[in-house]
């Protein structure tokens, strides 16, 4: 296996007296990351820190080392560890990139951080902005997605207004689903209309989120005309699309 070979090469190099570098450790962590071996990745990261202490003056840690470790935790569903690693990298003045930020945020959103996930992701976004890391549309989409489980629709809309980058399809879907979760059917419908007006082609799941939001509050008959081209709302709900 690739990750086992990477660990073997790292071990063989040290046995031969070859001093490992940040590139060496980053490559080993990336190999483990590709297979979701987050625990092995963290072990290598700890070893990199230990080696740095031994090899005074030669750092075996870089922003890429942390990026690889964050990616490993993200793939392994370890969202809390991914967030902690990003914060740790920041505290070590390693200037984590927007890519590292997005990876940590995506881990929280996709791994089911729970209803409190949006607070953690929002805090992480604020920390990144304070460090002058320029967020991308993926950054805001990830934070907005984290708002869905708790139905924090006002925060999601505030983030849309705050973003300095235009929203894309993923952003709009996250917003619509969050508003739908909070039974804010008018906001969800308005966002769908806004997305279509900007040329975004949203999938059936986005339309279904609006329909479901209307159904939750008994306003199924009040669906906007923008949904006219779709199947009957009740038929759409019967398809079993997840929202």
TrEMBL record:
**Residue spans of the PPR repeats:** 62-96, 168-202
Q: Which UniProt keywords apply?
A: Repeat
The superkingdom of the source organism is Eukaryota
Entry keyword annotation includes Repeat:
yes
- By its UniProt entry, which InterPro entries does this protein fall under? PPR_rpt, PROP1-like_PPR_dom, TPR-like_helical_dom_sf
Q: Which residues form the PROP1-like PPR domain?
A: 65-230
Q: What is this protein called?
A: PROP1-like PPR domain-containing protein
Look up and give the organism this protein is from: Polarella glacialis (Dinoflagellate)
